[in-house]
Design brief:
It contains 3 helices and 25 strands. With 333 residues, it is mainly beta. The protein starts with a helix and ends with a strand.
């Protein structure tokens, strides 16, 4: 089969997986935390290392990778941002982890349009992603709209006003809702507001801003045209973003692209300095101070090296899936 033919087959398979092939299900709305979904141990050394996938949904045709470290380097947020066929919007997954004296605090969520860490790195803002396919029809049924409103716990009229086209190749309707998840309890809170395509925090951490989707044409990397201020204590909207709003801006680092047609050179040597030593990767092996952690290429590490962001081989990848996955290793003491 030629490269072009394989690409066509892969695109068709992905479109079907994204909801272009029919069915009434509300897609990509399940959210999971590390506490709810314990990660399996992947290696043993002085202690044990746990592997947590950053995105437990589909990686699409390609996925952008980004991460940010806190100023003291004791916390990290890492995001896998897939795109569907023709750069159509596709839900993301993220991990927020922080070193504390008591151990590692960590949460992981799927099915979000965007995510951002709070200024004190104790919580994450996110935009919950809903996607509903009309299948072979040219519009959603009344039952599908009702189901979406129930899933969002919002009035049907608000859902219809806030919904947006999430595909140019099929009839797929998207909806965003703002939410936060705190490391202290790991329980996501989602509010009945039709915004959250993009999210950010105020510098004082008391408010978040949730962006509306660009319409009528929504691409996966498009910015929001309007922003709503949300009180993080109550979830109540506090009007639109004002020019004097002081936004917290993490120092995002853009990482390697995860792509179905390419893999990365695992022979390259990567050295990350940490307190009292280093995290290294070479020949598809990651070590911390000489002790094996797991497979892959190290991308970033927290101050002690107990949280390591990596690109690792995916042993369960199907024929038209990327052969690598974005993971976080948690190294136990």
């Amino acid at each position: 089969m030629s490269l072009h033919a394989r690409a066509v087959v892969a695109a068709a398979a992905l479109l079907a997986a994204c909801g272009g092939g029919g069915g009434d299900a509300d897609l990509d709305t399940t959210m999971m935390s590390g506490a709810d979904s314990p990660a399996a141990p992947v290696s043993q050394g002085v202690g044990r290392a746990r592997l947590i996938e950053v995105n437990r949904g589909s990686s699409g045709m390609a996925a952008r990778v980004r991460w940010a470290l806190s100023q003291d380097q004791r916390a990290v947020m890492v995001v896998e941002d897939p795109a569907s066929v023709e750069n159509e919007p596709f839900p993301n997954g993220f991990v927020l982890a922080r070193e504390t004296a008591a151990g590692i605090e960590i949460v992981q969520l799927d099915s979000v349009w965007d995510a951002a860490p709070s200024p004190d790195w104790s919580a994450a803002a996110f935009g919950r992603a809903h996607r509903v396919s009309a299948g072979e029809r040219d519009s959603l049924t009344t039952a599908q709209w009702d189901s979406l409103a129930r899933a969002a716990q919002m009035p049907l009229a608000d859902v219809r006003r806030g919904a947006f086209p999430a595909s140019g190749m099929a009839v797929i309707i998207g909806l965003a809702q703002p939410g936060i998840i705190r490391l202290a309890d790991g329980a996501p809170r989602v509010w009945p507001v039709a915004a959250g395509w993009r999210v950010a925090w105020s510098r004082d951490g008391e408010r978040m801003v949730a962006g509306t989707p660009p319409t009528p044409n929504v691409s996966d990397d498009a910015d929001s045209p309007r922003w709503v201020v949300i009180d993080t204590a109550t979830g109540m909207p506090r009007g639109e973003l004002q020019p004097d709003f002081q936004r917290f801006e993490p120092n995002w680092v853009q990482g390697p692209l995860i792509d179905i047609s390419a893999t990365h050179d695992t022979a390259q040597r990567v050295t990350l300095q940490i307190d009292g030593g280093s995290v290294e990767s070479v020949g598809n092996l990651i070590t911390r101070n000489g002790v094996e952690v797991g497979s892959g290429i190290a991308l970033a590490a927290t101050r002690s090296g107990r949280v390591i962001v990596a690109l690792a081989p995916d042993p369960n990848a199907a024929e038209y899936d990327p052969k690598e996955r974005l993971v976080v290793y948690i190294v136990e003491p």
